[in-house]
Amino acid sequence: MVRVRFAPSPTGALHIGGVRTALFNYLFAKKHKGEFLLRIEDTDQNRYVEGAEEYIINSLNWLGLTYDEGVGKGGKHAPYRQSERKPLYRQYAEQLIANGWAYYAFDTAEELDILRKTAEAKGETFIYNWATRATLKNSLVLPSDEVQRYLAAGNEYVVRFKMPDNEVLKMNDMIRGEVVINTNTLDDKVLFKSDGMPTYHLANIVDDHLMEITHVIRGEEWLPSMPLHLLLYRAFGWEAPQFAHLPLILKPVGNGKLSKRDGIKLGFPVFPMDWTENGETLKGFSGEGYFPEALINFLALLGWNPGNDQEIFSMNELIALFDLEKVHKAGARFDPEKIKWFNHQYLQQKGNDELAVLFGELLKNKGIEVATSTLQKIVGLLKERATFVNDFWELGKFFFEAPTQYDEKAMKKQWKEQSPLIVEEVAALLRNATDFEARGLEGIVKQYIADKELGLGQVMPVLRLALVGELKGPDIFDIMEVIGKEETVNRLFRILE
Ligand code: GLU
Q1: Residue nearest to ligand 1 atom 2, measured at CA
Q2: Catalytic residue numbers, as ranges
Q3: Could you tell me which residues are beta bridge partners of residue 181?
Q4: Residue 301 phi, psi (nearest 5)
Q5: Ligand 1 centre and the CA of 217: distance in Å?
Q6: Whose CA is nearest to atom 3 of ligand 1?
Q7: Max alpha carbon distance in the chain (Å)?
Q8: Residues that bind ATP, according to the entry (predicted)?
Q9: Residue 254, pLDDT above cutoff 90
Q10: Between vectors from CA 400 to CA 397 and to CA 401, what angle results, nearest 5°?
Q11: Residues in binding site for ATP
């Protein structure tokens, strides 16, 4: 049974890279009829941010990435919040010490700082590892009665992993293939602290094991931790899960990882939902009017594609086609124009009834109430040009309010000597129309043009200017039908005034 987890730390808003990690875990789980867990990794109390956990859960819900077990849901391995699992980790740290895989280190922060600075002064870097550990204050060096005395006296300590000497590790990553490293290049990472809190590395491995995780799918920034993690599995005598490290998400232009600042600077969201931090609200995709399906589709293609040029995928298609082995190694460039394109596509797919409801809510906030059947017609006429529901207002505000001014340039070009007469005569014909329906109205006006031996260009633009105020918008007969006889005739007289 495939079991995967999304294991974010609640340190702020969930970055779009984290959302993609959650999505790929979800797709992989569903594809293999497995289970998807949400674990909150909050062992680092210094980086804990109030509200972040709730934000993560709300975002997953908005996107429809439902999890089978986890925080807020429970499950057979509860609790799923690491801070609530605190009492569990000490025994594992002690087990590693007892088996010679880890040791107590009593060096104080100040002592280590001095060593760091001294090394720096010589142009070197101090690393706690195979080369230095024998000269430092730890249980590998100190006599055991002294170690016991330190512990009994409540001296501060950390438990460090004793990285094996000079071993060439050959590891496998489902995306990157074979990864080889010599353990001498790695340091003795801290696993546990005397305040009883494990570090990320220990808690992550213990929990993945206890929660029966079969595949660890996470961002590339964790690739350097893979050797330590595999060695921890070896040290505990546990079977390791398979690893897959997802490629970075790159800035739209230039080099480097997409950051929160890129979004602010270039004006696009990098978070799923709105997030308020230090009194400042950063807009998320949902707040900017993106549909969750569009974001899912866009993220699915950041670093993966099924090997053809299909671009629009429903969640079910993604589940059916997703394959970790087809995920790319190279970073995936974030293109804010592309997600707009997806949103446009998804908007076209939506029914006019659904769009009418969404647009109706927006109008209500402006104090405008319109019959649903009318709104359905309006969104139908506008949707081809809309990317967001918000666009309906900009594209079609003339449906709700008569123009208060007329585009000067267009007037200069279109408003001729004969225009007033034309507008007046058309108004008179329309006033007598029995059935105010677009195609019928089109017949009346075209007949008038033919009878008077006029050109379309002498009539249509001025009618449009009267109804819309500028030379924009859908078919003018459709506009007439929607706004009705009285309003149409009023607008025609108004331009005469
Ligand atoms: N808590 C880590 C993070 O915030 C999880 C990394 C992992 O999936 O192992 O990204």
Answers
A1: 8
A2: 260
A3: 169
A4: -90, 5
A5: 9
A6: 8
A7: 113
A8: 260
A9: no
A10: 85
A11: 260
